[in-house]
Amino acid sequence: MLDKDHTDNRTNLLSLTRGELADFFATLGEKPYRATQVMGWMHQMGNIDFSAMTNLSKGLRERLAEVATVALPEIVMDQLSSDGTRKWLLRLGDGNCIETVFIPEEDRGTLCVSSQVGCTLNCSFCATGYQGYNRNLDTGEIIAQIWTAYKSMGDSVKSNRRITNVVFMGMGEPMFNFDNVTKAIEILLDDWGYGLSRRRVTVSTAGVVPAIDKLRQVSDVSLAISLHAPDDPLRDVLVPLNKKYPIDELLAACRRYVSGKQGSRITFEYVMLAGVNDSPAHARALIALLRDVPSKINLIPFNPFPYADYTRSDPEVIDRFRDILINGHIVTITRKTRGEDINAACGQLAGQIIDKTKRRMRYLQQGAGVNP
């Protein structure tokens, strides 16, 4: 079924892969090559005005205006951090707002995109979880984040390309929106879309084991795991999904994911929480846990948000933890906190969500002080 915009009966072309676009044009009596032409205009040149697509006939351009649209969110806020990080607050057609973040680095530029309005999970150290959940984003809403970032920054797929990597690490659990996320990935990888290589697209998950196996079959992109603890009792508290998919099952899925892929590694994300998961014993347990999984560990200093029950580990504690892991022959990087002054750092994305779960209300009733 062809995707529709939430407030418009016309087909949203941002939601369609090249194959789906070809099918769409077939319904208009057009040849399949029209799909590559229109993808080039939309994604590579950033032009969504049908009347300006000069390699289409005038009749087709007029017909597209009647039956198709390119649905974009409203940019409510566009913030630039002192360190160059940029965050967009985007209002969707139903009134919900999501956040998208660009992080510039010396060797790459990473765009962090959201996959849900809020999050179905309730990880205790993440601001998004406190906001509750409304719905999954559709494919067009995911791609619209990339399109908006490219356009806002004056980027082009062909030149002046600052966005070199896309990570599904924004609001939401990507694996719980599997179909829309993998369709968006297909557009990102398509030479007529954004032309990214598989290693430059990363899906981060809290550990939805069946979807990890499915992703390997569908789209062989990079995989990141939000681990944050070396044992089940602690991870049950930090990442409640662990109660359904405990660490042993999760790591077995990780081993399957990289099986037969020479040089492939799983990235494990580990937020550093003072006095919770940052001791030398935790580091040694992590080494033992990952001894047979090709791994890279990103240590993430905790980024505070209102009403959080945690504090950030001291820098010397993080350094000691890192050194233990490196001495245990695990590639380990301490991620530099970026965009903290605009609440764009890892774990801080919140958006503006019409919460169907009433999670914020429950926090308020429990005395957490979160505004409903």
Please provide a written account of the structure:
The protein is elongated. It starts with a strand and ends in a 7-residue tail after the last helix. It has two domains: 4-69, DNA polymerase, domain 1 (Orthogonal Bundle); 74-365, TIM Barrel. The longest helix is centred in the middle third of the chain and has 15 residues, at 139-153. Mean pLDDT is 88; it is low at 1-5 and 367-372. It has 372 residues and is α/β, with parallel strands linked by helices. The relative contact order is 0.13. Strands 4-5-6-7-10-11-12-13-14-15 form a ten-stranded mixed sheet. The protein has twelve helices and 15 strands.
* Classification by helices and strands: alpha/beta
Q: If you compute it from the alpha carbons, what radius of gyration comes out, rounded to the nearest whole angstrom?
A: 21 Å
CATH fold-type name of the largest domain: TIM Barrel
User: What's the arrangement of strands in the largest beta sheet?
Assistant: 4-5-6-7-10-11-12-13-14-15
Instruction: Provide the CATH architecture of the largest domain.
Output: Alpha-Beta Barrel
Percent strand equals: 15-25%
- How do the SSEs run, as a string of H and E? EEHHHEEEEEEHEHEHEHEHHEHEHEH
Assembly annotation: single chain
Rounded mean pLDDT is 88
The coarse overall form would be: elongated
Topology, element by element:
Blueprint: E1 4-5, E2 8-12, H1 18-27, H2 33-44, H3 58-67, E3 68-69, E4 74-80, E5 86-91, E6 97-104, E7 109-112, E8 116-118, H4 127-131, E9 133-136, H5 139-153, E10 165-168, H6 178-189, E11 201-205, H7 209-218, E12 222-226, H8 232-238, H9 247-258, E13 266-272, H10 280-289, E14 295-301, H11 315-327, E15 331-334, H12 359-365
Parallel strand pairs: 2-3, 7-10, 10-11, 11-12, 12-13, 13-14, 14-15
Antiparallel strand pairs: 1-2, 4-5, 5-6, 6-7, 8-9
Helix pairs in contact: 1-2, 5-6, 7-9, 10-11
